[in-house]
Amino acid sequence: MEKRVMTDGKRRKGLVAVAAVLGGVLTLAACGGDGGGDDAKNDGHKSQSQVDEAAAKDASDAHIKITPKAGATNAGINSDTKVTVSEGKLTSVTMTSAATGNTVAGTISPDKTSWKPSGQLERATQYKIRASAEDSKGRKATENSSFTTVSPSNSFIGNFTPEDGSTVGVGMPVSIRFDKAVTNKKDVESHIKVTSSSGQQVVGHWFGGDRLDLRPKDYWKAGSTVSLKLDLDGVEASPGVKGVQEKTVNFKIGRSQVSTVDAASKEMKVVRDGKLLKTIKISAGSPENTTYNGQMVISEKFKETRMNGATVGFTDDDGKGEYDIKDVPHAMRLSTSGTFIHGNYWGAKSIFGNVNTSHGCVGLSDTKGAGDPNTDGAWFYDNSQVGDVVIVKNSKDKTVQPDNGLNGWNMDWSQWVAGSAVGSA
Length: 425
Description:
The protein is α+β, with helices and mostly antiparallel strands. It has six helices and 27 strands. The protein is 15% helix and 35% strand. It starts with a helix and ends in a 7-residue tail after the last helix.
């Protein structure tokens, strides 16, 4: 029996010894511990504070900064993202989409102190960045971060015309339609610049909260180059809704062509660069459906298109369109509400120059199929471009509204400037 007691006693002492050893291990591994007291020092071990101090002395001087800050939401998709380093040089930067793992291309600057993505980021996407750098002693520093870009519901864009690289007529305004209403018009407009090689002053005019048109006082100078710069990234259109565009668009103004339709004499004079090019017989809107007066800009061209009266309010008692012509030749849009100047093959040739018969459009003699280049309709189509001006006068109708198409020229300059949020300065 005593032998058994002695055995239990030895086992208990053994357990105490093991516990002491484990206690020492646990103490050494704990952050900020004192290293186990005098016993550890006597064994030649450093305290944790001494280890931390030594590590701090050997830490890299390179300091990496990643923007946007970690955890940010609604980050811009153009210029918000950047990695910089001070007291060191970047050695690598990896940016990936958290959802797909796809790598985002980017470029480290020649001096290796900064990095940025090569292109525009996606909206509503979480990205991860890992950056490494070294200081002058070759000591490495690493930084990780993640952020989420602005969502479509919290951002806005402007759809603009004309297109980059296009050549347009002298009447073509810059017209921008925003996909969300803008309440902070002054800030948005101040970040949109339109300049011309002609030196003409350009001023914007707001049509409601979602459209901004910009033009000079008079038509653009023929042969000039116009530049539109959208600097909207991060600009707040309304509370919580920010812009995401940084874009420059350049387009050229072609020759000057202004055509004047006289609804009373039923003819159109085409003037190019100040000289009469051609006089064409026309048929404008009938007395019941007169054509708008005013300066109208060609905004679209269609060699053939369908015209259905039901789409513009001309219906019979059954609700069907009063007309439905599926192959109208050489059609050019003059207003959003449906005013066109186009070829007409279904009317008698005798109406042109003699009778106004249309539902408000300006008709030119043409043939079915748009295949005859010798008709007036084909000639005018071939010799016109988007942005050319067509003026209608002596009609019994009112002047077309400035926002009905690209027709802001029907507003005098003082009215135009009054519609700007930043004025004419």
